[in-house]
Amino acid sequence: MLLAFVLALGIMAALALLLGAVLGWAAIRYKVDEDPLVDKIDAILPQTQCGQCGFPGCKPYATAIAGDEADINRCPPGGEDGIRKLADLLGKEFKPLNAENGEEKPKSLAVVDEAVCIGCTLCVQACPVDAIVGAAKHVHTVVSSECTGCELCVAPCPVDCIDIVPVGETVTSWKWRYPVIPLTPVKVAA
């Protein structure tokens, strides 16, 4: 009886390995290539993952723009500058920010009032970029270098201990709206 059980487990393990290998091969074999236009559009978007555009993040919005399924003026965090860059990239006419999606605001961060926080983890679950850390029933805090200021953590907080504060432009915060363009070294003739 024990031998039959061990044999059955061995057969199931072998089948699981075989199935895993087949699925892995299929994933590699039928991988869809990334669209370079989507990547260029995504690089212009601010990566807040806030959903104000009506899509669950910047990459889905970029995909919709590339497929002519969404207008380029739906991203409040990207603002007018982002819309202009998208219009230039795509050869489209500039349109002002769609007011239905919100209004352009300065870069901001979430700040947890640790004296009030009850450690419910609702803000942790709402954060699309994992910028809030803390365990259940312990105080939470925001990793400011990761926070995009999307404001999605504010509404679920039952004790209203999260404030969104504007961030002044500094050497480390200025590039949040601009894609980083690698510079090519230039050789100087001697």
Question: Overview of this structure, please?
Answer:
The structure is a single chain. This protein is mostly helical and 190 residues long. The chain has two domains: 66 residues, Orthogonal Bundle (3-methyladenine DNA Glycosylase II, Chain A, domain 3), CATH 1.10.15; 73 residues, Alpha-Beta Plaits, CATH 3.30.70.20. Helices cover 33% and strands 7% of the residues. The chain is built from five helices and four strands. The strands form two sheets. Strands 1-4 form a two-stranded antiparallel sheet. A two-stranded antiparallel sheet has the order 2-3. A hairpin with a 7-residue loop joins β2 and β3. It is flat.
CATH class of the largest domain: Alpha Beta
The CATH architecture of the largest domain comes to 2-Layer Sandwich
| Class inferred from helices and paired strands | mainly alpha
As laid out across the biggest beta sheet, the strand order is 1-4
Low-confidence stretches: 176-184
Radius of gyration: 23 Å
Strand tally? 4
- CATH fold assignment of the largest domain: Alpha-Beta Plaits
* Count of individual domains: 2
Tell me about the biggest sheet?
A: 2 strands, antiparallel
Mean pLDDT equals 85
Distance between the amino and carboxyl termini: 85 Å
- Total helices: the number is 5
Structural topology:
Elements: H1 2-29, H2 36-44, H3 58-66, H4 79-90, E1 108-112, H5 122-126, E2 132-133, E3 141-142, E4 162-166
Antiparallel strand pairs: 1-4, 2-3
Helix pairs in contact: 2-3
